[in-house]
Every structure is written in C-alpha cells, then in structure tokens.
Amino acid sequence: MSTVDLLKIQKLFQARKFSEIIFEIETSTSEQNRPPALHNLLGVCRASQKGRSDRDVKYALNDFETAFNKDNLGEISLDSLCNHIKLCAEMGRRESDLVNNILISEKMYITAKKKFSNNERFIGHGLDIYKYLLKHKERILNLEKIISITKLNKLFGTILITSQMYVNNWSQKDFGDFQKKFSKIFDVYDAKKISKVDINSRQIKVGFLSCDFHKDHSITYFIKSLLKDLKQTKFKTYGFSLLKNNEHDESTDKLLPLFDNWSVLGEKTDQEIVNIIQELKIDILIDLSGLWSNNRISIFNTRICPLQISWLGFNNSTGLKEVDFILADVNTIKEEEKYYGSKIYKLPKIWNSHCGFDLKRNFNELPLKKNGYFTFGSFNNFMKINEEVLDVWVNILKKVKNSKLILKSSLYICDDVIRKKFDSEGLVDSIEILKKTKRNDFSSHINNYNKIDMCLDTFPFNGVTTTIEALWKNVPVITKAGYNFNSRCGESILKNANIDEFIATNNEDYINKAVFYANNIDKLEDVRKKLFEEIEKSSLFDTKAFSSAFFKALNDMILEVNKNYK
C-alpha cells in the first residue's frame, strides 16, 4: 500500500473532515504496517465524528489500544492511553462496556508506569484522565460498581480519589464518604506491637516520609527551616526518601544534611519499609505525600508508630483511620472537620511556613504602566483550570477592556482546549501561554511575575506555592474561599499576608474584585507596596514562629495519642 499524504491529512484535520481522514488512512495503509501515530489519529477521528455510533467508539478504543501496544511505551503510547480513558469516560451507555474498557485502560496505565513512573507528562496524563471520569457526580455510581468488580490496585485507586480534588461541587462530606468506600485498596502489613511515646525522653524520633525530596520540589522550601530548628530541640529527625538513589539530585544533597538520619527506601517493598521504621523505633511518622503519585500511604494503614500524621504534601483526608492527625490551621478546616476521618490539629496562623527565595527582592512597578493594558496571570497547574474557572476568567477579561491573561503551560496538558475557549469568546488575542520553565532555571520562572499586574487563583483546587511566589514578588492574588482544606489554601495564605480584601466568597464576588482593582490602579498600587514592605515579616515567612507552633503541636498530639496506650 502507498504511504499517507501527511500534508493532505493535516489540511483535512484542520477542516475537521474526520471521515475523509479515516478513508485516506484506511485505503493508503494496511493495519499490519500502520504506524502507531496513524492508529492514534484514526481513533481520534472516529471519536470526533458528529453523531458517532457505538461501532465508531468500539473501533476508536481498539485503535488507541493498538497504538499503545505498537509504540512500545513511546510518546504515542502516552497520548493513546489518555485518549482511551477519556473516551471511556464519555461512554456510559452500557455499563458492561464501560467496565470492560476501564479494565483495558487500567492495564495500559500500569504497563506504562513501569517506564514513566517519574515522568511529569505521564503523571499529568493520569490525573487528567481520571478527572474526566469524575466530571459529574452521577458517574461515581458507575465507578463504585467498577471498583467492586475490578478490585482496583493502589495506583488506580489513589489516582481515582485524588482526581476528586479537581472536581467542582464536591463537599467535604462527599469526599470523605467516597474515600471510605475505597479504603479496601490499602493493604495491612505485619507490625510489632508499640507503646506510647515517652514525653519526657531526651530524644523523640520524628520521621518524615516523602517521594518529593528532589528537583526543587516546593515541599523542600516549606520544610527546610523547620528541620534546622528541630535540631535545637529534643526531636531527632529521620528522612525517609521514597525515591531511588539515582533519582536524587543536588536539591536532595542540600536537604539531606538537615536530617539527623537519612534512608533511601525507593526500592523497598511496603513491608520492608514498615520493618525498617519499626527497627529504628520511630515515635512520630509524618507523611508528606498523601495520595499523590509514588506514595506509600498504605504503610499508614498499619499502626507502626505511636503517632502518625499527615501534613503538607496532601491538603485533605487520606481516608486512613490509622492516621491520627491532619495538620492544618484555623482557616483551612472549619465546621466540616468531622468528615476528614482523622483528628484535626489546627495551627494558630498558617499550616506551613516558607523559608523564602534566594533572590534579591526589588519593588516591581505595575506592568500596566509600560504595556498600556492590564495583565492578569495564573501560573497554576493546568489541571486546576476547569470550565467554571475559565468562565469566570472570560467574564473578567470582557469587563476589563484590552486586558490580557498570561498562563504557564505544564508539559502534559494540551493548551488547545484553553485557547479554543478564549477564541470562542472573541478573546483570541487576550491569552498568552508561556512555556514551562525548567526546574533548574528558577530565576526565569519567578521573574515571569514581573509581567503580571494581578494574579487569579484557581478553584476549587487553590494554588499554594504559586500564590506565595506571587506575593513574594508583590503581586496580589484574587482567590475564592471554598468548602474544604485544598479550596481554602488561598484564603489562609492571603489572611496571613494581611490582604483579606482579595478573598472572594463566590464567583460574582471574585469577578467584581478583579474588575475593581483592575480599574482602580491607585488602590492596587497601594496593595503592591504593602506586600513589598511587609510580606517578609508576615506569618508566611516567619519560620521561627512556625517552628515554635509546630513543636507545640507535636507535644500536644503526643499527649492526645498517649491516652490510647496503657
């Protein structure tokens, strides 16, 4: 068979003539000799046809699976995997078909993980995929049945749970109830009997477990000063890295000396990790990863230490009853406390404290004065940008004449969806998407805030590090206060930065605040000057005060859990 005319295919695709593309590929290539990219394209075209039939869907899913297998874990494999599960999410006509194809998707994902376990694009695909599955509450009914049929493994199950954090209109009760139903995905391990913590001991052992001790992950900025201060106390620190030795980098090297002891556990089984932690007689074990990728949260399902805590890396419930406390603050968890499944310890001001950035701070004038137009910005992960967020941002841009919005693209999310949204609203020239900055070029990343007059936070999944970065660069952030921990992070950060006026209560309030400050430049300038002069003195960067509150929290939590031991 002759080869495909790629230029012709490209023109047909731009014209959305999917049936013609299908004909062209099928008549120009044999299935046996067809490359993975064309199989993937065939699937996209079949799935994208107007009035597609059940047969089209069936064939498209087969095309994606074939592309995945033929590509042997290359780039096309990632795309075809994503396409496969997204199409599963759109099915739902017959539950049996949905279940069967989810099983295929699961198998593909697990196969891909063998090669791409630390690939950001792959991880992002996973989160993006399952967000589609949980787009509507009614879909959960199907998924619960899938769970009961497939007995999903930990990888699939945890991704399924975390994807809920990106979905609108989920109360904390919804989240907590849903997690309980998935508790069976976590194993229970053999463990030695433990006793209470000796509060009077000269040395109390605190272990920090994380899969993120590398690549300048933001968690290192939040823990660095605390570890230094812990050295001056009765607490002895143990760093448990869930990475392999060859995955560590210079950031790991900088963090390692701050721990009193260091262990690399990435190649160990969960049971081996349990044994190591118990042999070391750790008193307090703090999980810093929650349910995110590469976690080992399952070991917390077993009582291996007297006090087990979830903090920092995962701002919600783990769903595990053996996690004694979630460390939060007075702003992030409120009346819905009972739905988190663990006790809540509320720090008096902020649940974390940043050590700041190793860069000289300069006051940045409003870019508006140079550009002649107002620039909004959001450097949050594209996963956090949902339809509701986009609608609000579109509304703002329409109300603020000649304004622009700068976003920053992650590696794994196609920005076409976002561009199409703004194009459809007549805002084709109002959107700019910057390329993702390499991790080792932090100065370029942070200096991108010099282009922004005011930042716009995402919801219900708020930014944390990005919000703190913006405030450090004296750029105010509009946020919307939500209904649980991860949707109130912005509220807590802004209250601790003493700019409560930028906290919105609903979408209309969010829009009005953004428009007001965009049209009242003098007031916006006053806030920017206030941030420049005061932000370093705020609770956000007062590491000594935070460490003191953290020490008290540990002692208080020890006293509380000791009541459970005879």
Basic shape: globular
Report strand %. 5-15%
| CATH architecture annotation name of the largest domain | 3-Layer(aba) Sandwich
- CATH superfamily (homologous) name of the largest domain: Glycogen Phosphorylase B
How would you portray this structure in words?
- The chain is an alpha/beta fold and about 575 residues long.
- The protein folds into 3 domains: about 35-185; about 205-355 and about 545-560, Rossmann fold; about 365-540, Glycogen Phosphorylase B (Rossmann fold, 3-Layer(aba) Sandwich).
- It has 22 helices and 13 strands.
- The protein has helices at about 5-15, 20-30, 35-50, 55-70, 75-90, 95-115, 120-135, 135-150, 155-160, 170-180, 220-230, 250-255, 270-280, 365-370, 385-400, 415-425, 440-445, 465-470, 490-495, 505-520, 520-535, 545-560; strands at about 205-210, 235-240, 260-265, 285, 305-310, 325-330, 345, 375-380, 405-410, 430-435, 455, 475-480, 505.
- The strands form 2 sheets. A 7-stranded parallel β-sheet has the order 3-2-1-4-5-6-7, with helices on one face.
- The chain is globular, with a radius of gyration of 25 Å.
Highlighted features:
566 residues, alpha/beta, Rossmann fold, 3 domains, six-stranded parallel β-sheet
Compact summary:
The protein is an alpha/beta fold. 46% of the residues lie in helices and 10% in strands.
Fold topology:
Layout: H1 6-14, H2 18-28, H3 36-48, H4 54-71, H5 75-90, H6 95-116, H7 120-133, H8 137-150, H9 154-162, H10 172-181, E1 204-210, H11 218-230, E2 235-241, H12 250-255, E3 261-264, H13 270-279, E4 284-287, E5 307-310, E6 325-329, E7 343-347, H14 367-371, E8 375-378, H15 387-399, E9 404-408, H16 416-424, E10 431-434, H17 442-447, E11 454-456, H18 465-472, E12 477-480, H19 489-496, E13 503-504, H20 507-519, H21 521-534, H22 543-562
Parallel strand pairs: 1-2, 1-4, 2-3, 4-5, 5-6, 6-7, 8-9, 8-11, 9-10, 11-12, 12-13
